[in-house]
């Protein structure tokens, strides 16, 4: 699945992933390859990404929105550290 992470200032990440875990407003959840379409709001919490080459990246998000459609995910986050 291709994932893009955008903040108001810049594109933080763009690449192929095996999975990523987000802090959804109703609890954290994982998104994997060929996930069903979804739109979800995000709370503050940990964002964990596992890339296609098995690298793990961990960020802290301060809220945002996730859209998954046609094996492409876009994370629009307020702030990312």
The biggest sheet, with number of strands, parallel, antiparallel or mixed sense and barrel status, is: 5 strands, mixed, barrel
| Shape verdict | globular
In DSSP terms (H or I, runs of 4 or more residues), the helix count works out at: 0
Average pLDDT works out at: 96
Order of helices and strands: EEEEEE
- Give the DSSP E fraction (strand runs of 2 or more residues): over 45%
Share of helix among residues? under 10%
How many angstroms does the end-to-end distance come to?
23 Å
Q: Provide the spatial order of strands within the biggest beta sheet.
A: 1-2-4-5-6
Rg: 11 Å
**Got a strand count?**
6
List the uncertain runs.
none
Q: CATH superfamily assignment?
A: F0F1 ATP synthase delta/epsilon subunit, N-terminal
User: What structural class do you assign from the helix and strand content?
Assistant: mainly beta
For the record, the CATH class is Mainly Beta
Query: What name does CATH use for the topology?
Result: ATP Synthase, domain 1
Q: What count of domains describes the coordinates?
A: 1
Q: Please tell me the CATH architecture by its name.
A: Sandwich
């Amino acid at each position: 699945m291709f994932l893009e992470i955008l903040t108001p200032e810049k594109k933080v990440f763009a690449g192929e992933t095996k999975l990523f875990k987000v802090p959804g407003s109703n609890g954290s959840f994982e998104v994997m390859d060929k996930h069903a379409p979804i739109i979800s709001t995000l709370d503050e919490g940990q964002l964990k990404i596992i890339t296609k080459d098995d690298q793990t990246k961990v960020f802290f998000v301060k809220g945002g929105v996730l859209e998954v459609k046609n094996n492409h995910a876009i994370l629009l986050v307020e702030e990312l550290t």
